[in-house]
Amino acid sequence: MYQAPRGTQDILPEDEKYWRYVEGTASRVAELFGYGRIRTPTFEDTSLFVRGVGETTDIVNKEMYTFQDKGGDSLTLRPENTAAVLRAYLEHGFASRPQPVKMYYLGSMYRYDRPQAGRLREFHQFGCEVVGDGAPTVDAEVIMLAWRFFEGLGLRELTVQLNSIGCPECRRAFHRLLVEHFASHKEELCEDCRRRLDTNPLRLLDCKNPQCQPAIATAPSSADHLCEACAQHFGDLKEMLGALDLPVVLNPRLVRGLDYYTRTVFEIWPPAVGAQSALGGGGRYDILMEELGGKPTAGIGFATGIERIILNVQAQEIQLPEVAVPCLYVAFMGDQARIPALLLADQARRRGIPAVSALSPRSLKAQMKHANNLGVRYAFILGEQEVADGTVTVRDMAESRQWQEARETALTRLLPTKG
Ligand code: HAM
């Protein structure tokens, strides 16, 4: 028996209500904020992610699904979508549009990660990107959008974890401080962190290995070592978020796992768990456009993990809106009613009435049982007599009543009420 590949999952019809709820809320909230949806390809040139996400990151080093196509090009299933959105911004000359350009996306991402609850190899993100404006107001609006999305889902007890990691200039000085600090604790660090000391010292700060925690606890904080402009930006942002009254927690250990971030970084955490289960995360990436060959252009965004969100929606027992079930079942008895039944179901659907028709000849009892299982409100029954006189037997499943009437009036009764 074949099984879905490890780290992937089938999303079954009965799960659809969760997906529709989360994705519907995402589109609604993003559009309320004036964002337009962008759909980029599922795969891109490998070098886009290597340049964009960064050569020293786990994503690029360990987690990419990279393959050579039959033409010999190296392609990668997207592990994230920010680099691709910027590629599209450059490719389509969005710099000549009014700035900033605000975009959102929903789609599948791929990372060769160790699968566990809420961590998959194929997963789905809702994300937003605002490109072309560096003002702290944009940071505040993006964080507000993320928050309104989670609030719109009805999720409770979340927090916004916030930090600033500065610009490349203030970061150079901060890196020196970090390396100095961790070098003096080298013996206590895990193997990964010893390597990171040379490649990406900032990442030491969010190592989860218990062995590294004492050294991390006494490490300097990036937010205390910002240049004047970055400190001003961060101060303004904190003031705005304070005015918005969001549950912001300043987290000096928050550094994020992608290399393109500058200044603001943030994550949305569920109650009582850490970054391993972040529902979403993002930040500013003012250096990314240049990295991808464009002119310096400010940008900020975030992405959220839909599977993780659904796990939390289920854990918090959030009441979902009812998903419409078909309201009509068309049953038939006898060969001569088979085609009229198909046509009657079609007539119903063309008027917007969701209808299921019986397909194989079965006893009326079996057909009514099927109708019952589907949860339909009405069954239409066509037999020899109904076919002959152009009527239908209508059965009200909820009230166990039935009567015969003209097909036209029966259909009208089922028309969706407007309003
Ligand atoms: P990220 O933190 O790598 O950021 O991913 C964002 C969210 O995607 C995570 O918070 C998590 O909810 C979900 N996620 C990540 N990996 C997995 C996985 N293996 N299984 C299930 N869910 C996962 C980014 O992707 C950035 N592009 C966000 C961004 C947008 N920054 C600026 N703009």
Structure in a nutshell:
The protein has 419 residues and is an alpha+beta fold. Helix content is 37%, strand content 21%. Helix 2 crosses helix 4.
Descriptive report:
With 419 residues, the protein is of the alpha+beta class. The protein folds into 2 domains: 16-167 and 227-315, BirA Bifunctional Protein, domain 2 (2-Layer Sandwich), CATH 3.30.930; 328-414, 3-Layer(aba) Sandwich (Rossmann fold), CATH 3.40.50.800. The chain has 15 helices and 16 strands. The strands form 3 sheets. Strands 1-5-6-11-10-9-7-8 form an 8-stranded mixed sheet, with helices on both faces. A 5-stranded mixed sheet has the order 13-12-14-15-16, sandwiched between helices. Helix 1 (16-32) packs antiparallel against helix 5 (136-153), helix 2 (46-53) packs across helix 4 and helix 5 (136-153) packs parallel to helix 9. The chain is elongated. The model has no long low-confidence stretch (mean pLDDT 94).
